[in-house]
Prior knowledge:
Blueprint: E1 2-3, E2 33-36, E3 39-42, H1 66-73, H2 94-98, E4 106-107, E5 110-111, E6 116-117, H3 155-178, H4 185-198, E7 202-203, E8 216-219, E9 222-224, E10 238-247, E11 250-259, H5 268-285, H6 295-306, E12 311-312, E13 318-320, E14 327-331, E15 347-350, E16 353-355, E17 361-363, E18 370-372, E19 378-380, E20 383-387, E21 394-396
Antiparallel strand pairs: 1-6, 2-3, 4-5, 7-10, 8-10, 9-18, 10-11, 12-16, 13-14, 15-20, 16-19, 17-18, 20-21
Helix pairs in contact: 3-4, 5-6
Amino acid sequence: MQRKEPSCAAAEADEPPERPRRSSHRHRSRTSVFPLSGFVICTLAIPSACAFIPLSPQLSSPRPSLHQLRARQGGATASGIGFGAETKVVKKKKPKSARSDSSKAVHGGFRFSGGLRPGKLSPRREVPREIPRPDYVGGLPPVKNILGWIPQKSPEEIEGMRRAGRIAREVLDIAGRAVQPGVTTDEIDALVHEAAIERNAYPSPLGYRGFPKSVCTSANEVICHGIPDSTVLCEGDIVNVDVTTYFEGFHGDCSETFLVGSPDGVDEEGRRLVKVTYDAWQEAIKLCKPGTPYKNIGKTIYEYVRSYGYDSTPGFCGHGIGRMFHDQPEIHHVPNSVRGEMRPGHTFTIEPMINEGSGEYITWPDQWTVTTKDGKRSAQFEHTILITDDGVGHELLTGKIESSPKYWWEGTGYDVEPVRT
C-alpha cells in the first residue's frame, strides 16, 4: 500500500503494477449440525474466511538483507530514522491528512475508502529447500476439515504446537521492534521472512492461496491481510503485524497492533482504539477453559467494544490451528450461534478486528487487502490458545516471553473510560 502524502512517502512510481488476484471464494463459512436418530450429521465446514482470509513475483527491486536491516537497528540512519534509534520526528496531524476528501477519489477504477493505496511489490522471497513446507505450498489448495469436528491434540502434538508458537512469538517481536517511521512494510516482510527461516520455520502466509508475502501488515484503515510493499510507515500511523510460522508440522499464529513512532505521536483516538481492542481481546481470553461455549467469545467482545463506541468486524473470524493453518472451530467476534464447547487439547486463535466506525468493509482489487468501508481505522490482536485441564483453563502458546517488548501503555497508567450514554 502506498499513501498519497508526499511529506511521508518515498518517491512514487507512476503506477504500481497490477497485483495478482487470489482465487475467489466466499468470505464466510457455515457449519450446520442436524440431530437424526441419535446420530449427528455435519455439513461441510470450510473456514475459508477465518483469520487469514486468505492472501507472486512482481517488479524487481533490491531485497534488503537481514544483515542490512539489523545494521539499521543499531542507530539512526542519515535521515535520523532507524529501527532502534531514539529520534525526534516531526509530528503531523494524522487523521485529517490521511483521510482527506481527495483520498477517496477513484483510483484505477476503484474507489478507496481511506488514504492508503497499493504500492510496489518486491520479488517473491525464496525459502531454502530443506525447510519443510505446509501442504498448500506449490499451488495445491489447503487441506480442509470437511467433517466439522474439533481435533483434540495429543501430548506430543501439544509440544509441537508450543515450539511453533514460540517461534511465531520470537518473529513477531523482531517485526514489532522494526516498526518505526520511515520503514516500509516490505522491509518488515524481509525481517519476518529471514527470522523464520533462521529458525528452520516456513512463513505460513507465503503461497497460501497465492498470497505473495511472508507476513500481513495492515495499517490504519486496513482491517486485515495487508500485503507488504513499498508503503512507508509514518509517525502517527497504527499497523497490525500478523505472523504465522510453520515448524515441524505445526502452525503458530499471533499478531499485534503497533503505534508508529512515539505514543504521543499517535492521536488520542488512535491510542484509545488500540487499547480497547487489546482489552476486549483479554476479556475473551479470560473465558477460555473447558466447558465454555465457543459462541460466548463473540458476544463478550462485541458487547465490550460497543460500550466504547466501536464495532467488531463480522465477516472474519479466528480459527482452529495445528497441523492445518485453518481448522475447526470458527471463532466469531460478534454474537453468533456457533455450536461446540472448549475441551482440553483444543487449539485455536482469538483475533478480534475492531473498528473506529462501522464494521462494514471493502476488499481491494488485489482480492486480499480488506479495509473499513468508511475509511476509519481498525486494530487487532491475536494469540494461539491451548485449552488445558490444569485448573488455569488455558495456555497462551504465543504469549510474550522474557525478551518481548512491553506494550506501550505498560507502566504509564494509561486507561480508557467507556462511553457515557
